[in-house]
Design a protein that fits this description.
The protein is 36% helix and 18% strand. The strands form 5 sheets. The protein has a 4-stranded parallel β-sheet with strand order 3-4-7-10. Strands 11-12-13 form a 3-stranded parallel β-sheet. The chain has a two-stranded antiparallel ribbon with strand order 1-2.
């Protein structure tokens, strides 16, 4: 490459940020010691989220043994790995494969080839011969699946190997009457205790204010607040997890709020959750995406007006939480360029870097 041209480009870039620089013989020197500190971010920024449906698909696109994956992951440490998303509310934890016959719901789907109950989760036929990649269809049908104790150990050991902490999103659709049923969570906690898996933080449910849309289920906000309180009480009973981090409620839809609307449904839902949760949340989480992955186009990925949505949304949520729950950290618990699995050919390309650059720089300089 033309080192002179490259140096000039880098020099122009840093000059825009008023950073003292010099360039000699193709070597660029940047002096950040003279800059004032604008903000401080957590040492776990950035972290990583993977959708729970990868468990249902038997980790088909996740190679825990890949040297490349291990090396790249270790560079991000310390960080959280969040196992969550829509499929989290379809997951049943089963400590051992021989316990599958005791699952009350025999319609649980999984890919455990050693089990007589095994049928591919992504199948649209009873014999498992036809695969379906339409996740929204699988979600609408509420196709449940199993995560075994070995699955949990594999994921946990990967996190430990690269210096990450596991953030586990528990199934909020485990219900008994109006309340969350903690029986399956107790099984998971017991298994973790028995196998010395103690570096785990927790969430309960995913995007609860959109459950009607995703999974055709309505969960009242005040009831969810009580469910969080119940989960915290459960964690307190464990010597392993009594001090574990509990975050939530992972609301979404703030993008639908604007100065033209008198109320914001997402924040109204959040306020009701906080009113009954008893202050048990160690951080308040919300989700943000710029675009709908099914309809997004190239021009939107570089549209300043689209990028500026984040600024308004973040300022709105920050102001709200500082008023309703002062002192509680605010986490952007799930985010990317486009929701719905991303925009094919865009979210996984160079142009998505503008979204990430905008997001990271604004979070760096914001007071949230």
């Amino acid at each position: 490459p033309d080192m002179g041209l490259l140096c000039s480009m880098l020099l122009c870039s840093v000059l825009l940020c008023s950073v003292p620089v010099s360039c000699y013989d193709g070597v660029l020197s940047v002096d950040v010691g003279q800059l004032d500190q604008i903000a401080t971010v957590s040492d776990r920024f950035l972290s990583v989220a993977i959708d729970s449906h990868v468990v249902a698909e038997r980790w088909k696109n996740f190679d825990f043994q890949s040297e490349k994956v291990l090396n790249m992951a270790a560079v991000l440490a310390p960080a959280y790995m969040r196992l969550g998303g829509t499929a989290a509310d379809l997951l049943t934890f089963v400590p051992n494969t021989w316990d599958l016959g005791n699952i009350p719901d025999k319609l649980t789907w999984n890919n455990l080839t050693s089990s007589e109950y095994s049928r591919p989760w992504c199948s649209t036929s009873k014999d498992g011969s036809i695969d379906n990649e339409n996740l929204s269809k699988l979600y609408k049908e509420r196709k449940k699946f199993v995560m075994t104790g070995k699955d949990l150990e594999t994921l946990y050991n990967f996190c430990e190997a690269v210096g990450w902490s596991l953030l586990f999103d528990l199934n909020v659709l485990k219900r008994k009457g109006k309340s969350w049923y903690s029986g399956n969570a107790k099984q998971l906690l017991h298994y973790a205790e028995q196998n010395d898996l103690q570096n785990i933080s927790f969430e309960l449910g995913n995007e609860p204010n959109s459950l009607k849309h995703h999974l055709n289920f309505t969960l009242p906000a005040r009831q969810l607040g009580k469910d969080f309180w119940k989960l915290k009480a459960l964690l307190k009973q464990s010597t392993f997890f009594e001090n574990s981090t509990l975050v939530g409620p992972d609301v979404n839809g703030v993008r639908k709020c604007s100065p033209l609307h008198k109320t914001c449904k997402a924040l109204t839902y959040l306020e009701k959750v906080l009113s009954t949760s008893g202050g048990v949340l160690d951080a308040i989480t919300w989700h943000q995406y710029y675009l709908d992955g099914h309809t997004a186009n190239l021009s939107q990925f570089v549209d300043v007006n689209v990028l500026d949505q984040l600024h308004y949304q973040l300022d709105l949520v920050t102001s709200f939480t500082q008023t309703r729950s002062p002192g509680t950290p605010l986490w952007l618990g799930e985010t990317s360029s486009a929701y719905g699995g991303g925009a094919h050919g865009l979210s996984n390309s160079f142009v998505a870097g503008f979204n990430w650059l905008d997001k990271e720089l604004y979070v760096f300089t914001s007071k949230s």
